[in-house]
């Protein structure tokens, strides 16, 4: 079956009742016939039938064997980091998601796990950063908010050669547009809060692997530390996933048109979109992705926070909100919102200028979107 068919039917009718929509098993525990004799479920932290459906769905979509659902993207990230021990080192892309940067540099740093943040768009930098302590290489491609592209397949070969695991946060593209496991990644991370659920109404996070030993370790940490996704939020995310291919197609079409519009606007300085021929790693993106997605960033010729704020408060369809991947178009200002906790030097080094504006282009009519950008820029 093709992806669009498979995904619509990703939740199977309930075996017990035939319910076409996966039931929300809102229960904490399950009655047992005798001690340890049960129908496969004992306690919802360990397993829940609604969560199981969404976990199997994400594993299938990401070409893995096991999926794990968490209460947020950061809970999923935290579960991966708990594979580490004191003295281990993480090599991460330098404009990694702000929350990932924060957990690495505060909580895990305090526990004796160090991180290096480098520009992974050039494989030489990755080679130079690796040491005998490197356990993880942590990528996002494209990154947030400057849409940098790293060569996942090349970096995965490098990771294997030094015995490190490659972790790819695939939130920005979703499994419909990129499958890191196929490119050699060991663990895929998702914030399901974004494109997977797609409607700005739920927080969720996922991990996918295909190595049985890694699956067992993550399952152990998930159950032991307990950051699991609730039955209702599992159901909401599952419902979102059913329209994912349709939405990603429209996000990508609109994203490209918005990027092309911005490139030609006199007040706009730089435009960051992997679908533009002028993007530094356009060819790599075209190879490893199925389309270019809905995230577009740009800076203004008047590179000031004031000019950015002026724009951000004038858009009418693009809503000013700290999220992405919503069906609605959203706009944000990384410097004062998502990257507030990133130190200025780190921020500047990864190209996050004062006027940088990030758009999460929604699925509205493209003419309305362009009109809104035009009036806000004028
Ligand atoms: C939002 C986001 C996260 C964190 O997810 P939450 O669901 O907000 O905890 C991680 N990585 C990326 C790329 C994100 O955009």
UniProtKB/TrEMBL annotation:
InterPro entries reported in the protein's UniProt record: Cys/Met-Metab_PyrdxlP-dep_enz (IPR000277), Cys_met_metab_PP (IPR054542), PyrdxlP-dep_Trfase (IPR015424), PyrdxlP-dep_Trfase_major (IPR015421), PyrdxlP-dep_Trfase_small (IPR015422)
GO biological process: cysteine biosynthetic process via cystathionine; transsulfuration
GO CC terms, sorted: cytoplasm
Pfam families assigned: Cys_Met_Meta_PP
Modified residue annotations for N6-(pyridoxal phosphate)lysine: 194
Keyword field: Lyase, Pyridoxal phosphate
Any GO molecular function: pyridoxal phosphate binding
Cofactor(s) annotated in UniProt: pyridoxal 5'-phosphate
Family: Belongs to the trans-sulfuration enzymes family.
Protein name: Cystathionine beta-lyase
Species of the source: Apibacter adventoris
């Amino acid at each position: 079956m093709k992806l669009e068919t498979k995904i619509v039917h990703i939740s199977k009718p309930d075996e017990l009742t035939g319910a076409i929509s996966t039931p929300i098993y809102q229960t904490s525990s399950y009655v047992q016939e005798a001690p340890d004799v049960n129908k496969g479920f004992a306690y919802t932290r360990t397993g829940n039938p609604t969560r199981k459906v969404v976990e199997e769905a994400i594993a299938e979509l990401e070409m893995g064997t096991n999926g794990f659902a968490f209460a947020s993207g950061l809970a999923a990230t935290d579960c991966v980091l708990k594979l580490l021990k004191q003295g281990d080192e993480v090599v991460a892309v330098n404009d990694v998601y702000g929350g990932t940067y924060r957990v690495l540099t505060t909580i895990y740093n305090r526990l004796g796990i160090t991180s290096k943040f480098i520009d992974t768009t050039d494989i030489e930098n990755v080679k130079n950063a690796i040491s005998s302590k490197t356990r993880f290489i942590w990528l996002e491609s494209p990154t947030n908010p400057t849409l940098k592209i790293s060569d996942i397949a090349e970096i995965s070969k490098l990771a294997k050669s030094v015995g490190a695991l490659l972790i790819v946060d695939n939130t920005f593209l979703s499994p419909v547009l990129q499958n890191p496991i196929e490119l050699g990644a060991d663990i895929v991370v998702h914030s399901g809060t974004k494109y997977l659920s797609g409607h700005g109404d739920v927080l969720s996070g996922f991990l996918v692997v295909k190595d049985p030993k890694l699956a067992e370790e993550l399952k152990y940490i998930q159950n032991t530390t307990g950051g699991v996704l609730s039955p209702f939020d599992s159901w909401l995310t599952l419902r979102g996933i059913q329209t994912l291919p349709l939405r990603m197609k429209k996000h990508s079409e609109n994203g490209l048109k918005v990027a092309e519009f911005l490139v030609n606007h006199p007040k706009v300085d730089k435009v960051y979109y992997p679908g533009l021929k002028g993007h530094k790693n356009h060819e790599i993106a075209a190879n490893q992705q199925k389309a270019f997605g809905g995230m577009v960033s740009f800076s203004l010729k008047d590179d000031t926070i004031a000019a950015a704020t002026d724009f951000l408060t004038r858009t009418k369809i693009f809503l000013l909100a700290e999220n992405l991947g919503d069906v609605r178009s959203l706009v944000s200002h990384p410097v004062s919102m998502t990257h507030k906790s990133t130190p200025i030097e780190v921020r500047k080094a990864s190209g996050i200028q004062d006027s940088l504006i990030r758009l999460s282009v929604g699925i509205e009519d493209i003419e309305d979107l362009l009109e809104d950008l035009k009036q806000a820029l004028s």
